[in-house]
Amino acid sequence: MGTEAALSSETLVEFRQALEAFDLDEVWPHLAPYLPGVEGSATQRNYRSGVKEFIGWAQTQGHALLRPGEAMGGAYLAHLHARYAGKPSTLTTRLSQARALYRVLRKLGLVPRNLDPFSALERPTVQPGAAREYYTNDELTRLLAHGTTEQRALVLLGAHGGLTTSEVLSVHWSQIQLQRGELIVHGRAVHASEELLEALRAYARTQGVGDLFTSEARVFDIEGPTALRSQLYRLCKAANVSYRAWRALRHYAGLRLYLLTGNAERVRQELGLVTLQLTEPYRRKVEEGT
């Protein structure tokens, strides 16, 4: 880290005004001591470049740095994917530099301690009984209507298949058994709805994959979880649907299956959950009236 010094109330006012004006030259002297590296080092020059990009983007897109909307994090991630396609390490660095800015702002009290515009990009573990987010039937319909052939297959693997991000990224065509209407994922059988199978067939045709799905290639050529979440964010924006993390599609799948079967053990098996306790939120939501 740079050499930190307590900021006077007058300096904090100047820092705030510089942020409100998107003035990097005025922001940087206050920010730099709280970031890695020493003055003039390559590390600090890299951070300055990343912060400059983020502040410039925020100004262009009309995002207030001290009062960011909940969609700002996802929007910046989509921007990074568009600019740094094929450069995942650069994308990750730029995103971490924007996060670092808000860590400093929270530390100095310039934004609330719980304000993190990038929190929606996180994937915290959902504890038993914790509140879960779901996409609604209407939202899913809109996502499918606005999605490309690839995006429809992606969304339905989450919303009907209940696959996690890592499972979606690693699934191979040969794991899809059309005759039995199943996907074999990490040793477990996942029932595939006819809508999901048709979406996969349609996408397979665009990829030159035969009807028997015998290819050992991965179904999706997506770089990683961040790129997958970016795809979902852009689709939500196009469909005028509030963005929620990928797990909200998976929760939709769990609730859908519970509604169809009323069988908690089957839900546990198909989602690959460790215990039946993890299906309790679905049961409670059904009892509350979905």
From TrEMBL:
Instruction: Read off the PROSITE patterns from this record.
Output: TYR_RECOMBINASE
Protein name from the UniProt record: Integrase domain protein SAM domain protein
Q: Name one GO biological process term.
A: DNA recombination
**Which species does the entry assign this protein to?**
Deinococcus maricopensis (strain DSM 21211 / LMG 22137 / NRRL B-23946 / LB-34)
Stored InterPro entries: DNA_brk_join_enz, Integrase-like_cat_sf, Integrase_catalytic, Integrase_recombinase_N, Integrase_SAM-like_N
Q: Which domain of life is it from?
A: Bacteria
Write down the Gene3D superfamilies for this protein, in alphabetical order: 1.10.150.130, Intergrase catalytic core (1.10.443.10)
Which residue range or ranges hold the Tyr recombinase domain? Answer: 130-290
Q: Say yes or no: keyword DNA-binding present.
A: yes
Q: Which GO terms describe its molecular function?
A: DNA binding
Q: Which UniProt keywords apply?
A: DNA integration, DNA recombination, DNA-binding
Q: Which Pfam families match?
A: Phage_int_SAM_1 (PF02899)
